[in-house]
Amino acid sequence: MGLEFSAGEPEALLRATEDLYWEVACELAEATRKLRDGELGEVKAAVQAAKDLRTAFQMVMDERTRVDKLRKQVAGAAGGAGELDFAAARDEIGRRLARLRDAGGGG
């Protein structure tokens, strides 16, 4: 592939990994088509393409996980996103209970 990525470019690495996945998927589709056409010499190529596809798929999933983790870290550093505010939740529950009490029994 010959591409170099810095730590600040996880999306670029993810895109490159997804491109690799699609290339291998196309190779597998082509080898499968040749097998259906009776070209038995393509069995080895089809098996290798299937293995490569499995490896590429794992790479895509690993990179997506890394990108998601980095995004969460950045969001957490940018203002505490993702943290639970128990005091605000307690206040909201209290307001809702008060509205229910004010609305009456209903039954």
In short:
The chain is 75% helix and 0% strand. It is built from three helices and no strands.
Task: Provide a descriptive summary of the structure in words.
- With 107 residues, this protein is mostly helical.
- It has one domain (10-103).
- The protein is 75% helix and 0% strand.
- The protein contains three helices and no strands.
- Helix 1 packs antiparallel against helix 2 (43-77).
- The longest helix is centred in the middle third of the chain and has 35 residues, at 43-77.
- 6% of the residues are buried.
Descriptive terms for the model:
107 residues; mainly alpha; 75% helix; 0% strand
Itemize the secondary structure elements and their pairings.
Blueprint: H1 10-36, H2 43-77, H3 86-103
Helix pairs in contact: 1-2
Number of domain units:
1
Span between termini: 70 Å
Largest sheet: none
Determine the structural class based on helices, strands and strand pairing: mainly alpha
- Low-pLDDT parts are none
The strand count comes to 0
Give the helices and strands as they follow along the chain.
HHH
Gyration radius (Cα, Å) is 26 Å
Helix content estimate: over 70%
